[in-house]
């Protein structure tokens, strides 16, 4: 009788504990309060926007990073409106261009920052719709570089022209503002960061509806196909690539789709490049080869490296969730801004004379110790 009573009590306790948590789309258990925060994030940021109006009329050269625009996350229209205002104030430095189309037919825009250099760097963000802070960090970086130019400070733009594409997954991003805050895929239910060509086949191909569904074939999606066409047209000038994601706190370099090393000394060069970014971005970041976390097929940096033989990285911004508080925008943006400036310096060295490997390539890169919950590992690496 006592045993039966105790068993019932334990069952009730477990049931009560389960009732206090909700399992999200990423498989993580969160408290009811945490889940509510995620679901109300768009509303919270719209309220933030109402408290921080007038940023366009207040924009001033040299103070762009201090703009109240960076106090909140913003919709697609607001983002383009803000950067268009920067273009209007800096017509000799900044220009707007169309780079691709979305599944729904929207135009994906990029912005070119130029001081007349012969080589360029390409930075993109938000292949995954829910990663708002990836896009905001790229916008903060652009603002900061413009501020530095106004102040006569050294920037990445001294050595390279820079292309910024703050929103790749435009359709999906819009959906995160209207209904599904935790959406990862495009409007066509494709993970755009699995839609790039790879010489390897996933032994367990994800099905339609899976968050990492790669599409019917490489470049099946207008977003990636259009970006590919545009990048190919710039082949002779492109010197390096960064794809910004959240939230693992990692600087990732090829390969993600195989355990094999690159060889010819490149693994050591990538590790040195990653260490350079880590040195300025902070202790929250670690550098490693992508496959050291897990295998991912069809990711952008692998394709860019194989196609252009120029350094290509994923920056996984540090954090605790894909949904980040607006108050973290400046801090995360500053980290990416520092990483971008250091990347420009490292690219010059990386693209210099080839240095033959002097040690076993497999021992060059030590795996970073990254605490990642098993339930979230597939979603975190982008």
TrEMBL record:
Q: Which SUPFAM superfamilies match?
A: Zn-dependent exopeptidases
Give the superkingdom in one word: Eukaryota
Q: Does the keyword Hydrolase apply?
A: yes
What positions constitute the catalytic site?
Answer: 316
Domain annotation Peptidase M14: ranges: 72-347
A Gene Ontology MF term for this entry? metallocarboxypeptidase activity
From which residue to which does the signal peptide run?
Answer: 1-24
UniProt keywords (A-Z) are: Carboxypeptidase, Hydrolase, Metal-binding, Metalloprotease, Protease, Signal, Zinc
- Name the GO terms of the biological process aspect: proteolysis
Its GO CC terms?
A: extracellular space
Required co-factor(s) are: Zn(2+)
**Similarity annotation:** Belongs to the peptidase M14 family.
The record's annotation in PANTHER family points to: PROTEASE FAMILY M14 CARBOXYPEPTIDASE A,B, SLL0236 PROTEIN
Instruction: Quote the protein name from its UniProt record.
Output: Peptidase M14 domain-containing protein
């Amino acid at each position: 009788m006592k045993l039966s009573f105790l068993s019932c009590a334990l069952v009730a306790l477990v049931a009560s504990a389960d009732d206090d948590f909700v399992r999200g789309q990423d498989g993580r258990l969160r408290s009811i309060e945490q889940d509510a925060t995620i679901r109300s994030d768009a509303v919270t940021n719209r309220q933030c926007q109402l408290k921080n109006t007038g940023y366009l009329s207040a924009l001033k050269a040299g103070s762009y990073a201090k703009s109240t625009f960076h106090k909140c996350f913003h919709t697609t229209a607001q983002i383009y409106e803000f950067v268009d205002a920067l273009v209007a104030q800096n017509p000799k430095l900044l220009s707007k261009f169309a780079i691709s189309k979305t599944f729904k037919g929207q135009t994906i825009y990029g912005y070119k920052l130029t001081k007349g250099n012969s080589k360029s760097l390409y930075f993109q963000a938000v292949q995954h719709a829910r990663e708002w802070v990836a896009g905001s960090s790229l916008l903060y970086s652009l603002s900061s570089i413009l501020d530095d130019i106004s102040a006569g400070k050294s920037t990445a733009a001294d050595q390279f022209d820079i292309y910024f594409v703050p929103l790749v997954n435009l359709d999906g991003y819009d959906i995160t503002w209207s209904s599904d805050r935790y959406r990862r895929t495009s409007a066509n239910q494709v993970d755009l960061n699995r839609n790039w060509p790879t010489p390897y086949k996933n032994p367990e191909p994800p099905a339609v509806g899976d968050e990492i569904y790669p599409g019917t074939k490489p470049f099946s999606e207008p977003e990636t196909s259009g970006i590919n066409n545009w990048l190919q047209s710039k082949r002779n000038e492109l010197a390096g690539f960064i794809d910004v994601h959240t939230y693992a706190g990692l600087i990732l370099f090829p390969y993600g789709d195989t355990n094999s090393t690159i060889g010819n000394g490149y693994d050591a060069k990538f590790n040195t490049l990653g260490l350079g970014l880590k040195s300025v971005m902070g202790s929250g970041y670690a550098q490693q080869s992508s496959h050291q976390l897990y295998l991912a097929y069809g990711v952008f940096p692998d394709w860019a490296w194989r196609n252009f033989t120029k350094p290509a990285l994923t920056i996984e911004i540090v954090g605790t969730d894909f949904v980040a508080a607006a108050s973290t925008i400046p801090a995360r943006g500053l980290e990416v801004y520092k990483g971008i400036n250091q990347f420009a310096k490292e690219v010059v060295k990386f693209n210099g004379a080839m240095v033959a490997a002097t040690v076993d390539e497999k021992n060059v890169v030590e795996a970073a110790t990254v605490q990642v919950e098993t339930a979230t590992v597939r979603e975190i690496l982008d």
